[in-house]
Amino acid sequence: MFDNVKEILEEYKKLWAYGYAEALMAWDTETYMPEADASTRGEVFSVFNELEKQVYLKISEKLDKIDEEKLSDEEKGMVRVLRRSIKYYTKVPIEVIKEFTKTTNESVVIWRNAKAKSDFNLFSPYLEKIVDLSRKIADYLGYEKQPYDALLDLYEEGFTTEDGDRIFNTLLPKVSDILKKVQEAQYFPSSHELESVQYETERMKKVNEFMIKLLNMPTDKFRLDVSAHPFTIRISGSDVRITTRYEGKDFKETMFSVIHESGHAIYELLIDPRFEGTPIATGASTGIHESQSRFWENIIGRSIQFIKLVYPTLKENLPFLSKYSEEDIYKYFNTVKPSLIRVDADEVTYNFHIAIRYEIEKRLINEKMKVKEVPSLWNDMMEKYLGITPKNDAEGVLQDIHWSQGSIGYFPTYTLGNIVAGMLYLKIPNLYDLVSQGKFDEIKEILKELICKYGATYPPKTLLRRAFGKEYDPEGLLSYLRDKYISLKGIG
Amino acid sequence: MFDNVKEILEEYKKLWAYGYAEALMAWDTETYMPEADASTRGEVFSVFNELEKQVYLKISEKLDKIDEEKLSDEEKGMVRVLRRSIKYYTKVPIEVIKEFTKTTNESVVIWRNAKAKSDFNLFSPYLEKIVDLSRKIADYLGYEKQPYDALLDLYEEGFTTEDGDRIFNTLLPKVSDILKKVQEAQYFPSSHELESVQYETERMKKVNEFMIKLLNMPTDKFRLDVSAHPFTIRISGSDVRITTRYEGKDFKETMFSVIHESGHAIYELLIDPRFEGTPIATGASTGIHESQSRFWENIIGRSIQFIKLVYPTLKENLPFLSKYSEEDIYKYFNTVKPSLIRVDADEVTYNFHIAIRYEIEKRLINEKMKVKEVPSLWNDMMEKYLGITPKNDAEGVLQDIHWSQGSIGYFPTYTLGNIVAGMLYLKIPNLYDLVSQGKFDEIKEILKELICKYGATYPPKTLLRRAFGKEYDPEGLLSYLRDKYISLKGIG
Questions:
Q1: Which of A48, A221, B246, B382 could form an S-S bond across to B201 if both were Cys, CB 3.0 to 4.6 Å?
Q2: Is A21 within 8 Å of B16 when comparing Cβ atoms?
Q3: Which of B408, B401, B392 is nearest to B121 (CA)?
Q4: How far apart are CA B365 and CA B136, in angstroms?
């Protein structure tokens, strides 16, 4: 290792320790913190943020002296990740960052109110500000072709409008076709009576404990707790935690949140432990991270083969399942229905929801579309893709928190997650043999070698080329959807 | 506030944020941390320690420029506490600190083994090293009269050998007399059959939840969890946590650990919230802290008046209590028996255990007594004070972990806790009326005004003079023991 990289990593140890403590604090905030401490903890976080910024600026000076030619792939990765972290601090003027933070802090509150009243006009002045500031930030960050590219890059390194257009243009017409066939065939119902059946939380906890055991999650490095919204957090490579929630009915919700978050956790746990304490001990991107969670949740968890493994445990703890067969549960887990709300969407219709948001963000940022045009564009696209129209803004353009938080460019990563999960589906032809036999450690080993072990050594596109010989390719996802929803593979 | 104090407090914010994060990490380590993360977390702690040292040294320079004359009591307190924190770093050479850390890290392991084999000779070379290094450290820290004073001061600011001698010389003969009378009267048994009765953990948790409710612990700022050893930790003034353990029998153990730790927590929660983020948002000393926990545990919790409040809940959750009266439980809570093990000792005999350790520490440090003489001195004093002799080193000189950790000077603070609790007993003549009526908020108000609200504004002796007009005075403790154990006040 070259001396200047060594020096940088020495300095980085501080950021690592801060990050470790912040992760634990963030976890605790959502799980066990006594509520009265929230504002004090907020102050602690801002002290840490300030300290971090100082360390980043110090590292920034050292980075300028690095001769990248001589570095190993991993060292290059470390330098790349650090440069990305520093970019925001060094390129965007502090007044702009402050204004953006102030605006988004306010607008989250306004959005909540606007959503409650189902009135986009209350939110639109804030969205205008956020869009203006985001365009400014894009200009400061810099881009090759389109300003939206600079924002996309914040979540998915190197991902551009060009990529997005290519993906959605390929994906959407083919998925429309799949959706039509699924609806005609009527094998998959549009809803299921189990959605309204109540469960006992204590029994459902046992089901979730079984899931974790089945997936062979390493309990000496992993834990499951309860929080209002499920999440995964890496404290270190030997301490990765997930949460779920128990809403009392529709048991698949908590079960799939556990499998989804376990997928994120598996990624973090499989990153090469040699990287601990360096900037590459993290996922390659938001989209790649989401590919792991969705691969485990959807492609594995919602398969008939997986259901066969968990069926006895489900029946043991959820007595109301006595009259349902494995295939009944398969249908309950895989309903297909064009619906208005993204978070309730199924595998077939989900990407339409993302396409709508992508198109709107793109037009707002690249084409300076007016914010006031957003609701009608939203509704038109809902009608075009899914044949339904929101009755009001709350179930339409106001449904997601993301824009109010200033997250423009984030939504596409959900679809990228689905796409990369689909690429994995094609890459592992014996996947469902392994699932049938409960050989989840073998599946993990494959994921580790293809994706996980590298952490953030490579940017996502490079990682994908190394693993699959190509970048984000929707063909895998389309094959998966066709096999499952049209050919009914694995059934009967 | 003067500018230089302001500057120091600005710098101190970092230490505050570090301390907050470290407290949460320490809590998590004992409660929820996945075990494989222990060594990584150790590394995080050492990064924080190094960062803290740097901030302290920076503050140290600023402290030199302070003109104390012009400061308020609180500002003086802040400066005093900071000077004490810095003293160790600045006066003791780094090589000595490192050697001490290395020695104690090793000697804890050796002690464990020596205790298991009940062989003091295995441990004595390490104790010799620890004593030698402690003497050195005492010399570096400086003292007026005796080197032991420098070590006592680490835990109880300003407390000296002279104070210790005075206290134990007053206390011991009178307690001997009390013990003799208690044994003659035979009201308090030496053991109780309830000690071996098993309870259901889930039911006992309900009892402990009731205790917390009865003591009106503020659940928005406080929580109770489970750990191997009970402890209290302040994360901030709005986040104070305690733990207990459930051993499955002898229910008073977990119940009194909850009350004891709640006493510590009440202290932290009653410190003036204006002090949050400054060095005085902490207890005045180890002894003063222990006075609060022991006041709640022993003087309140083990009283007949308190038992009357909790009796219905105890019976409801512990069905085996059906045949026991309130007075039976009083006797179970207050057995008196000269015994070999400090942690099992009762209120009457407890201070003899401390006197023995105090005398040994004093002779080792001040009089250069040889370590090899320790076991026989220990056994002679056990015989003299309690009329019993350990059969082996494990139940004698090797029983406590403290010396192996390098904590010489700590033990006396346990007796100081008892003494100050006794001073509070005398100070609140209507205490048991308040207890009978469950007016714990009124008791807290009194403690707050006398002790708690000041945090570490004043050193312990000053705090005591302000509250009681005198320093550590054993008369209160003696009155309490006589009233309870000889006059049987409150009974029959």
A1: B246
A2: no
A3: B392
A4: 10
Q: Which residue has the tokens 């209120």?
A: B347
Amino acid present at A230: P
Alpha-carbon distance of A168 to A362, in angstroms, equals 13
| Single-letter code of the amino acid located at A398 | L
3-class DSSP assignment, residue A282: coil
Taking CB atoms and an 8 Å limit, are B21 and A16 in contact across chains?
no
Query: Over the stretch B212-241, which tens digit does the pLDDT of each residue have?
Result: 999 999 999 999 999 999 999 999 999 999
- Write out pLDDT tens, residues A285-312: 999 999 999 999 999 999 999 999 999 9
Tell me, what amino acid is at B117? K
Give me the phi and psi of B394, to 5 degrees please.
-60, -40
DSSP designation for A95: H
Closest CA to B460 of B282, B261, B262: B282
**CB-closest option in A17, A25, A225 to B44:** A17
The pTM score is: 0.95
Contact residues on chain A for B35, CB-CB shorter than 8 A: 220
The answer to whether residue B7 is catalytic is no
State the pLDDT at residue B3: 72
Give the pairing of strands B239-244 and B222-226: parallel
CB B351 within 8 A of CB B415: yes
Rounded Cα distance between A138 and A151, Å, is 6
Cβ–Cβ < 8 Å for B416, B372: no
CB contact under 8 A, B37 and A13: no
Q: Do B16 and A47 touch (CB under 8 A)?
A: yes
| Torsion (CA) B343, B344, B346, B347 in degrees, nearest 10 | 10
Smallest Cα–Cα separation from A207: which of A156, A244, A180, A242?
Answer: A244
Please count the helices (runs of H) and the strands (runs of E) in chain A.
Answer: 19, 3
Question: How far is Cα B87 from Cα B293, in angstroms, rounded to an integer?
Answer: 28
pLDDT tens-place string over residues A217-266: 999 999 999 999 999 999 999 999 999 999 999 999 999 999 999 999 99
User: Tell me, what amino acid is at A261?
Assistant: E
The rounded distance, in Å, linking the Cα atoms of A47 and A33 is 19
What DSSP assignment string belongs to B290-338?
HHHHHIIIIIIITSHHHHHHHHHHHHHH-GGGGG--HHHHHHHHT----
**Average pLDDT, rounded, for chain A:** 96
Residue A482 is given by DSSP the state I
Burial class (CB in 10 A: 0-12, 13-18, 19+), A67: exposed
Q: State the smallest CA–CA distance between residue A280 and chain B in angstroms.
A: 17
Q: Which of B13, B24, B237 sits opposite A24 (nearest CB)?
A: B24
Q: Which residues pair with A224 in a beta bridge?
A: A242
**CB-CB contact of B91 with B476 (8 Å):** no
Contacts A236 to B, Cβ<8 Å: 37, 40-41, 44
Contact A457, A280 (CB under 8 A): yes
Which DSSP helix (H) or strand (E) runs through A243?
Answer: strand A239-244
- Could you give the CA distance from residue A436 to residue A417 in angstroms, rounded to a whole number? 24
CA A327 from chain centre, in angstroms, equals: 29
Please state, in angstroms and rounded to a whole number, the distance separating the CA atoms of residues B260 and B266.
Answer: 10
Q: Percentage of chain B surpassing pLDDT 70?
A: 100
